[in-house]
């Protein structure tokens, strides 16, 4: 709490100095530690709107994207991560944050997809693994390219309906 108060006072007292953006960045980090995402996002967005050429800009963009993701705004998060990677991907000084952005996108890639082609969604009992016998919702995707000789779902090779992830979850 003391560090947060010190940085809050610093951004007021030293507004317009070369260190103001750094202070906003660390203030945002301290808000994240306090689980105050709204205030953290506000601090990082200050960097994005007022200090576009500052060295902390890419980190602030990454932090804002992860907060947006956690708040359910996946589309904005994806756009911000894509922008970050496109604008700073070739700059060695920002390799760490670009690596974090790429890793975050890879880890959460399914959330960034806007839709899937679905053959069917059905309820049944699990027939495999340690959860055998438990009621399960199955989502059968369309378009498997493998063509295994033992496949019992050749009807799912083609067709299907494109559905958004939200509509799949709702169903």
**Strand pairing plus helix content: what structural class?**
alpha+beta
Radius of gyration: 22 Å
Tell me the fraction of residues in β-strands, as a range. Answer: 5-15%
**Number of helical segments?**
8
Task: Provide structural commentary.
It is a single chain. This protein is of the alpha+beta class. Helices cover 54% and strands 13% of the residues. The chain contains 8 helices and 3 strands; from the N terminus they run αααααααβββα. The chain has helices at 2-13, 20-33, 37-50, 57-70, 74-88, 95-107, 109-112, 165-170; strands at 115-125, 135-141, 161-164. The protein has a 3-stranded antiparallel beta sheet with strand order 2-1-3. Helix 5 runs antiparallel to helix 6 (95-107). The two termini are 44 Å apart. The relative contact order is 0.08. The model has no long low-confidence stretch (mean pLDDT 92).
List keywords for this structure.
single chain; 171 residues; alpha+beta; three-stranded antiparallel beta sheet; 3 strands; elongated
At a glance:
With 171 residues, the protein is an alpha+beta fold. It has eight helices and three strands. The chain has helices at 2-13, 20-33, 37-50, 57-70, 74-88, 95-107, 109-112, 165-170; strands spanning 115-125, 135-141, 161-164.
SSE layout:
Layout: H1 2-13, H2 20-33, H3 37-50, H4 57-70, H5 74-88, H6 95-107, H7 109-112, E1 115-125, E2 135-141, E3 161-164, H8 165-170
Antiparallel strand pairs: 1-2, 1-3
């Amino acid at each position: 709490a003391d560090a947060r108060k010190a940085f809050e006072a610093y951004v007021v007292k030293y507004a317009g100095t070369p260190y103001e953006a750094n202070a906003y960045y660390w203030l945002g980090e301290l808000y994240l530690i306090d689980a105050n995402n709204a205030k953290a996002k506000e601090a990082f967005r200050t960097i994005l709107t007022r200090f576009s050429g500052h060295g902390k800009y890419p980190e602030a963009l990454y932090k804002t994207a992860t907060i947006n993701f956690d708040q359910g705004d996946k589309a904005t998060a994806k756009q911000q991560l894509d922008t970050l990677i496109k604008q700073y991907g070739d700059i060695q000084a920002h390799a760490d944050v670009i690596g974090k952005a790429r890793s975050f996108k890879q880890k959460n890639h399914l959330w960034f997809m806007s839709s899937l082609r679905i053959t069917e969604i059905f309820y049944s009992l699990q027939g495999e693994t340690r959860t055998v016998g438990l009621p399960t919702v199955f989502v059968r995707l369309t378009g498997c390219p493998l063509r295994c000789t033992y496949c019992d779902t050749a009807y799912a090779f083609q067709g299907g309906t494109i559905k958004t992830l939200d509509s799949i979850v709702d169903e």
